[in-house]
Amino acid sequence: MVRLSRMKRSPVMVERVVVAIDGGPASTAALDWALERAKGQPVNLELTTVVELGWAPAGRPDDDFRPVYERALADATRRVEHEAPNVKKTSYVRRGVPADELVRASESADLLVIGTNKTGVLAGAVYGTLPLRLAAHSSCPVVVVPATWKPKAGSIVAGFADDATAVGALAFAAGEAVRRGRVLDVVHAWSIPATIAVEYGAVIPFAELREAHSAILAEAAGRVRAAHPGLEVRDVLEQGPAAMVLVGVSGEAELVVVGTHGRGAVGSLFLGSVSHDVLLNLKCPVAVIPRPDRVPDPVEP
């Protein structure tokens, strides 16, 4: 049973938000999202681009593309100055492997924001699979923003699993819902374990299983309500694979929040053999929250 005694977040006076910039439509969406979120709250934006080693044309120096990255970063900086003149900002050009450099940036950040073009199994993503790798290895929460994102009001959805990932995911989701004045939907998916189906044969205790999962969800939602008395919290219990359930509720959501175990497994929802592609079809930004006591893992090549 997950204990949520640490769920109430300590107030953060000024958040440090790192936004990955590469000049493409996905990074534009990431900056759009970060600027929209920054309205009405103090943040320090770090606009970061990574000049990837080994991507120069044959026979030319490794930093041959540096001016392109620098222009993209300068354009993003000017945009922040124009649209959010009161937001404190810094800009950095990093050199190295994008995943490694952004994981390092996450170590001193409160939030890392990156865009993605990926909308299906065959589609590409910013820096390839970078958003997925960052979600698994970042020291801070990662928000993955679809390139097609547009601002809209909707509920904040927390994908709830009865394990250690729930603490951070529920805390972050509740904080976002309070900050934005939104409803929080705590979504819990359940299914009949294969072992039970084999043991009971044709007689499966469907009602008992559903009641047990409903009680787990009610307890978690109750703890959120106790920590945030003015927040409207809705319990959403659905039968089926967790990833498919989250995809189903994401159409009307403003943000979906899930937890991560690290080492490539995100709350048993992200980065699975099929689930990671399903979740990347979400119609809204996804926040992936690392377990509070997890030591960051090295990024595998």
What is this structure, in a nutshell?
This protein is an alpha/beta fold and 301 residues long. It has helices spanning 25-38, 66-83, 98-106, 130-137, 166-180, 194-200, 206-227, 242-250, 275-279; strands at 15-20, 43-52, 88-96, 111-116, 142-146, 155-159, 184-190, 233-239, 253-260, 286-290. It has a single domain, classed as Rossmann fold, CATH 3.40.50.12370.
Walk me through what this model shows.
Belongs to the universal stress protein A family. This is Universal stress protein. Residues 13-146, 156-290 form the UspA domain. The chain is of the alpha/beta class. It has one domain (15-290): Rossmann fold, CATH 3.40.50.12370. Helices cover 36% and strands 23% of the residues. It is built from 9 helices and 10 strands. The chain has a 10-stranded mixed beta sheet, sandwiched between helices. Strand 4, helix 4 (130-137) and strand 5 (142-146) form a beta-alpha-beta unit. The longest helix has 22 residues, at 206-227. It is elongated and about 65 Å long. Mean pLDDT is 79; it is low at 5-10, 119-128, 263-275 and 294-301.
